[in-house]
Amino acid sequence: xxxxxxxxxxxxxxxxxxxxxxxxxxxxxxxxxxxxxxxxxxxxxxxxxxxxxxxxxxxxxxxxxxxxxxxxxxxxxxxxxxxxxxxxxxxxxxxxxxxxxxxxxxxxxxxxxxxxxxxxxxxxxxxxxxxxxxxxxxxxxxxxxxxxxxxxxxxxxxxxxxxxxxxxxxxxxxxxxxxxxxxxxxxxxxxxxxxxxxxxxxxxxxxxxxxxxxxxxxxxxxxxxxxxxxxxxxxxxxxxxxxxxxxxxxxxx
Length: 253
Prior knowledge:
The protein is α+β, with helices and mostly antiparallel strands and about 250 residues long. The chain is about 20% helix and about 35% strand. The protein has a 5-stranded mixed barrel. The protein has a 5-stranded mixed β-barrel with strand order 7-8-9-11-10. Strand 2 (about 70-75) and strand 3 (about 80-85) form a beta hairpin. It is elongated. The N and C termini lie far apart (about 105 Å). About 25% of the residues are buried.
C-alpha cells in the first residue's frame, strides 16, 4: 500500500514539474507579440518606413527657405547645401530647429547640385521630425497671401527646387525670390552669385524670412522684365481666331 502511494506521489510531482517548465525557446518567440521582439531601433522609429538605411549628413543651419505663401520649403546649411523637407515636416520644423543649430539629416544628396532631400531631421536637442510621405502641395499663385514686396540686393546663390530645377535666387540678406523653372531658365544670367537683383512680387514676410513669387525682375529698377508667375502654359491663339479650337498635337494621332 505504501509503495502505491509513493508511486502516485512521484507521478503527481513529475506532472507539476513539466507544467511549470518554460516553453521551448522557439515556441516562446513564435507565440510572443511582435512588439516584444522588436529591437530598440525599431521601437524608437516613429514613421512607417525604416530610414536607417539612408546616409546621415550633418551641418549647421544658416537660414530657412521661406515659401511665398507662408511656411518653409527647407533650409540652407553652412556649406551652401539647400535642404528640402516635405510639407508635413515643414509644419513642425520651426519649433524643432533654429538658425545656428547643428542638425543630423537622413536623406539623399544631389549628385552634382548642392541640394538634399531630407526624410528625417534631428535637432541638437535630440528631437526628430520624420517625413510622413504626404505629397507636397502644388504651388499656385492662389496660395500667395499678402501685398507686393520689393526685394533688392546681391545674389548669394541660385535657388533650386527639390527636382533640381533652377527656380530663383537667395539674396545675401537671406530673402528668397521664386520663379517657375521655365522663367528661371529664361533669366538665368540674373540669378548668378554676385549679380545685383531687383524683384517685385506677391509674397510673405515673417519670423522665418521673406519670400516672393517674382512678377518682375531685373538688374536695376529701370530694367525690369515681366515674369509669368507659376507654371502657367504659354498663351495660345486668341478666342475667335482659326487656331483657337485646335488642340496642339491632336492631328498627330
